[in-house]
Write a structure and sequence with these properties.
single chain; 9 helices
Length: 137
Amino acid sequence: MILKKFLANYGLIVTDQEPMPLYGLKLLSVILERNAAFVMILKKLSLTQVLLEYFSVGHAKFNAFTVKIVRAMVASREIPIEELLEHDIVTKLNKIMQDVVTKNQEWASDHLLIIMNEILHLVAELKKTDPESKVPQ
């Protein structure tokens, strides 16, 4: 019940003034780490789009919690690969990984590699089920 109320108001939390969005991202990352089924609720509330927007080098709300949230969203397989690609996740991943390597920030590398691995599996599954499908760039 509490989580449903929290997620229903999550859009307000992450768009509020600091430090509320940071606390909201931190709490959501813990929730998704424990139970990835909440990704479906985020999707129904159209919050996955907002969170994928935050997943970008230089975004004010890009941090370790955002990376963990995106990792949980991709790993849950609730978001189709086409939708992830519409949000330029591959381009964002490349830029983030380049930034992490350049700045020698080890805090994100494991999570980013897991996201990359999951995306590769999603694309492979798509190609297996529909060999004629064209994966958007």
